[in-house]
Amino acid sequence: MKKLDYEKLLMIPGPTMVPNNVLTSMANPIIGHRTKEYSELLEDTIEKMKKVFMTKNDVYLITGSGTSAMDMAISNTVDKGDKVLTITNGNFGERFCKIAEVYKADVIRLENEWGDDAKPEEVREILEKNPDIKVVTVVHNETSTGVRNPIKEIGDIVKEYNALYVVDTVSSLGGDYVNVDKFNIDICVTGSQKCIAAPPGMAAISVSEKAWDVISKTETKSFYLDINAYKKRYESKKETPYTPSVSLTYAMNEALEMVLDEGLENRFKRHEKLAKATRAGLEAMGIELFAKEGARSVTVTSAKYPKGIVDSEFRELLANKYGILVAGGQAQVSGKIFRIGHMGKAREYHILGTLGAVEMAFRELGYDVNSGIDAAKEILRI
Ligand SMILES: Cc1ncc(COP(=O)(O)O)c(C=O)c1O
User: Fold this and answer.
1) Mutation to probe ligand 1, out of 61, 70, 92 (largest number of atoms < 8 A from CB)
2) Centre of ligand 1 from the C-alpha of residue 213, in Å
3) With 70 as the cut, is the pLDDT of residue 372 above it?
4) Whose CA is nearest to atom 8 of ligand 1?
5) pLDDT at 13
6) In angstroms, what is the span from residue 205 Cα to ligand 1's centroid?
7) pLDDT at 2
8) Residue 57, SS3?
9) What's the CATH number where 271 sits?
10) How many domains does the chain have?
11) Is pLDDT above 70 for 261?
C-alpha cells in the first residue's frame, strides 16, 4: 500500500483532523477490558461525555460508528407497526427513515427541501393529528446539506406529547450548542470523528427515564446493540457488554478532555466564527451558498458549484495539488454542491488556506473568481 508522504488537510465534514495528544493516547498499552483500570477509564470517559451532552441521563459508549448509535436508538424503542415521525431534509434524516423501516415501523415523513431547515410548527401539526406517534427523530446538523435544524424549538413541542424525542448530534456535539436536558432530548446520539476530534469508530448515546420506560416495553431486536445489555453491564461492573476498542476509549477520553479544557462556550464561538468566515469568503468569491440563510450550520458549509465546474475535477485538484480535502454532495445534490467542514480542531489558518486553494482551483478550472481571503480575514481578526 502506498504510504502518505504528507498529511492532507481534512476539511471534510468528518472524519476530522485529530490532535496529536489524542493520537498518541492510542499508543497506551492495551489493558484488559474486564479490569479495574479499564472500568476507571470508561467511567471517566462517560462522565466527560455527560458534560459535553449536558445531561444527567445515562450515557453509553459503543464501539461502532455514528450509525450504530442511530440503530441502537431505533431498534430499542420501535416495534413493528409503531408510528415514527422522521423529520428529514438531507441524507442523514433519510437514514433514520431507513433504519425505522428495517424495524417495520409505520414511518411518517416530514420532508423539507434540502438546504432548508425543519419547521417546528409542522411537527406540532403532525403530532396533533397523530397522537399515537411513538418516536420523533431529527438530525441536528444535517451534514449532507450544511443545515442546522432547530432542535430546541422542536424539543419544546415534542415534550407536550407522548412521543420520545430522538436527536442525531453526530456532526454538532462539541461544536454547536446541544443541551440534552434543556432541549428535552430523550435519546441523543453522536460519533467520535467530527466536532469531538477523535478518530472514527466510537459512538455515544444518552437515554432519559422516559426512554427507559419505552425501552422496557419494546421487544429487543438486536444482539450487539441491545441497550439493556449495556445498562446491565455498566451498572453492575462499569464495563461494556462486549470487548470495546480500548485504544479508542483512550482517544475519546483525551479528546473530551480537550473539549472541556477549551470550554464548551469557547468551542461554540470558535465554530461559529470559522463558519462565518468560510461563508463570507465563498460569497466574496462569487460562489452561492447552498443552505438558506438562517438555516446554516456552524460546522459545515455547503456551496453550489458554478456552471461548468466538474465536482471530481475540482476536488481532485484541491486534494492532489493543494493537499486539501473537501467533500462533494450526496444523493440528490451529488455533483451540484461541495462542502467544507470546519469542525473539531479546525482553526483560522485552515480556513484561510482552504479558501485560498478553492480560489486557485476554480481559476485553474477556468472559472474566474474574486479572492475571498479579505472577507474571511475581516471576520477572523475580531
Ligand atoms: C449527521 C450525521 N449522522 C450520522 C452520520 C453517520 O455516522 P457514521 O458515518 O459515523 O456512521 C453522519 C456521518 O457523516 C452524520 O454526519
Assistant:
1) 92
2) 27
3) yes
4) 66
5) 98
6) 13
7) 75
8) coil
9) 3.90.1150.10
10) 2
11) yes
Cβ–Cβ under 8 Å, residues 178 and 1: no
DSSP lists the bridge partners of residue 80 as: none
Helix axis angle, 227-237 to 36-53, nearest 10°: 120
| Nearest atom within ligand 1 for CA of residue 143 | 16
Residue 6's pLDDT is: 75
Three cell numbers, residue 253: 477520553
As a dihedral over the C-alpha atoms of residue 164, residue 225, residue 45, residue 58, rounded to 10 degrees, the angle is 30
Kindly report, residue by residue over 24-60, the tens digit of the pLDDT: 999 999 999 999 999 999 999 999 999 999 999 999 9
Select from 261, 286, 309 the last residue of a domain. 261
Question: What is the average pLDDT across 298-311?
Answer: 97
Q: Which residues contact 164 (CB under 8 A, 6 or more apart)?
A: 77, 134, 135, 136, 186, 187, 210, 211, 214
Query: How far is the centre of ligand 1, averaged over its atoms, from the C-alpha of 92 (Å)?
Result: 7
Mutate to test the pocket of ligand 1, among 63, 74, 138, 171 (most ligand atoms within 8 A of CB): 171
Please state, as a whole number, how many other Cβ atoms lie within 10 Å of the Cβ of residue 102: 13
Point out the domain boundary residue: 226, 261, 296: 261
- What does each C-alpha distance from 102 to 74, 309, 316, 348 come to in angstroms? 10, 38, 36, 43
Range of the domain at 299: 9-14+263-380
Give yes or no: residues 359 and 285 share one domain.
yes
Using pLDDT thresholds of 50, 70 and 90, give the confidence band for residue 147.
very high
How many percent of the chain have pLDDT more than 90? 98
Q: Among all chains, which residue has been given the C-alpha cell 441523543?
A: 188
Using pLDDT thresholds of 50, 70 and 90, give the confidence band for residue 7: confident
Work out the pLDDT band at 5, boundaries 50, 70, 90: low
Cα-to-centroid distance, 78 and ligand 1 (Å): 21
Number of Cα atoms under 13 Å in the Cβ half of residue 291 = 30
Instruction: Among 143, 151, 225, name the best residue to mutate to test ligand 1's pocket (greatest count of ligand atoms within 8 A of Cβ).
Output: 143
pTM confidence score: 0.98
Q: Which residues form ligand 1's pocket by a CB distance below 6 Å?
A: 14, 65-67, 92, 139, 141, 143, 168, 170-171, 191
